[in-house]
Amino acid sequence: MPNQRELATTAALTLPRFVSSTVRFHTAVADRLGVTPAELHCLQLVHSGVTDSPTELARLLGLTTGAFTRLLDRMERARLVERVPDPGDRRRLRVRARPERMAELTELYAPLVGRLGEKLATFDRRQLAALVSFLADSEAAADRAATELRRGESGEIAG
Questions:
Q1: Does the global pTM surpass 0.85?
Q2: Rounded distance between C-alpha atoms, residue 86 and residue 48, angstroms
Q3: Residue 155 domain-assigned?
């Protein structure tokens, strides 16, 4: 059985391959829906309840407000989302996923969700807790690294 260091190295080397395979999957879903991967990402953020704020969506997608407005226009034309008045402040808009397209999205994700669910069902509580902790920490680290790159804070690349 591999030791702790070997397992950590294997995990570190496997993670980029996992990310690449999920990017390929999401690109295939976007292609099937006739949208760009960024539009699909936006749809997932809205549908999953992360946010419905256009400003926050633009930030999460790394887009300017102008670029996000164009993306949202395309998504409305594709009947994926709609702009709706904010119930708390009618001067503001919210983005809402169109329910009739969500069934299609759910169907496209079903095979992957099923396979991942089967694998997760084999983990005990301790393994699941470790996985959730790792994923949350990894999300925070990736967000921090992306912010640093956008601000030019990560330093020069040696070359």
A1: no
A2: 18
A3: no
